[in-house]
Amino acid sequence: MSRQAQFVEHSNHFLDVPKIEGIALPSDTDCLLRCMRNDHCFSLNVAAFSLPNGSTSCDLLSTDKYNVSDKFKEDRTSHHFSIMNPCENFPCQHGGTCHANYETYDYSCACEQNYTGNNCEIPIRKKAENFVTFLLFLWRRGKKKTLHLFWVFCLPYYLQISSGRDCFYLLNAGHNRSGVYSVDPDGRGHFSAYCDMHTDGGGWTVFQRRQDGSVDFYRNWTDYKVGFGQLTGEF
User: Fold this and answer.
1) How would residue 45 be classed by pLDDT, with cut points 50, 70 and 90?
2) Which of 2, 88, 4, 80 has its CA nearest to residue 45?
3) What pLDDT shows up at residue 180?
4) Where in the numbering of this chain does the EGF-like domain appear (predicted)?
5) Would you say domain 85-128 falls under CATH 2.30.29.30?
């Protein structure tokens, strides 16, 4: 069954990622229809020039330029088509990676380490400075009871803390966007982990993530023990 999708054309561009299918079809339109019939296809490269027999060469891809923007290149021999998605306007700020949810037409931002917020718009250090200033204000005014109540009940919401015991804990604390968080499951220190806040109710700590073939997973035990890849991509 074909999906309903609207494509955006990026003339003279090429997304340099492994293809899930390469095929020659009668026209550009046939290439787009081929992608729509494949649930794993989210963009495609189409040759700018026809083959000698008049057909069009196209490569179906399992990712798009929003997830792997560093692989999106100018190329006069190709046109790139991507399914219109909520990451079109690059909403994630300060180097955050935008991950599109095509079913709900929503997105989530995987923020760099020093930023938080739905769009990675809030510097964590700045929030901490504001928090300390507010605590000093309460202390100097002798508002010890208010200070205690704020510390216990309001601190997590004021800071939008992106750390916790695990991803399920963070989900229950109000973090409903998938992305990179700081977790400490055994009390021995925090480390970064990717949390899936959408699949089957959310709250999943992801230990392996394969999506576009950009990372080689055929590795030895040592690599798997210490980890490899990027939390904002494949790992």
Assistant:
1) very high
2) 80
3) 78
4) 83-121
5) no
